[in-house]
Amino acid sequence: MSARLPSLRRESCPACGEYPGVGVFCSECGVLMSHPESGDFAAPYLRRLAAELLDLLLFLLLPLWLFWMWQTSRDGQSPAKSLLDLYVIDEAGQPITPQRMWVRELVIKRLVLGLVGYAFTLLGPIINAGWILMNPDRQCIHDRAVGTLVVVRRDAPTRAETLPEPQAADFQMPPPAPSGPRLTPPIPAPAPTRAVGHNVEAAPPSTPTSPELEALELQRTHLSQTEYERRRRALVRQLEESS
Question: Are residues 137 and 45 part of one domain?
Fold first, then answer.
């Protein structure tokens, strides 16, 4: 089983130039993002679902299905996919081997998901086929287990026009800084401090003086710090408004 594709995505599809979405196929044109020049496109939802149901009906004729499967597995096709012109490939975009095709169709899909699903509920194969409608890459449960994709093959798309890569000459660098000794900014002098009781606090910035402010300074020892600040700021505001 091949490793899952990395989660990192291109910003634009190389075939149509649009944002490709989050799946292995482009959400706009449906091309296989890992190999856009191969001509492999996502199988349409209804066509993919019809192939699963048709394969289920053909499997009821077991000898015919086995012979038909032996003939078509070398091309990455089951009997129904050969009728609907669909192909099974690896998640990395590579052809699938006949042995892996048999494991996918007979062991995983028919024995594990089919017989075990019928043993517990009749909805097992229906849930397996209905998984196509809930998966952006049109994968069934057995596709997720084996690591395969179902594609329809068309002519290889032409690559979308891409902008030229920027060259170093396209960027203008800023001029170099002037040479010479580096000047250090002056260090501001610390604010003067004043001792109040056992605490040392920074002196308030210089403010205009007035007789009211001088009188307030004389009453400071009899006022709390909050009341003193409230009165001082009110006097300073009045002094600034009058000036």
Answer: yes
Task: Please write the tens of the pLDDT for every residue from 71-81.
Answer: 999 999 999 99
Tally the C-alpha atoms within 13 A of residue 198's C-alpha that lie toward its C-beta: 0
Q: pTM of whole model > 0.70?
A: no
Domain end among 112, 138, 153: 153
Q: How many domains does the chain have?
A: 2
Structural domain for 222, as ranges: 205-242
Among 153, 185, 215, give the residue marking a domain's end: 153
Residue 180 maps to a domain: no
Is residue 117 a contact partner of residue 128, using CB atoms and an 8 Å limit?
yes
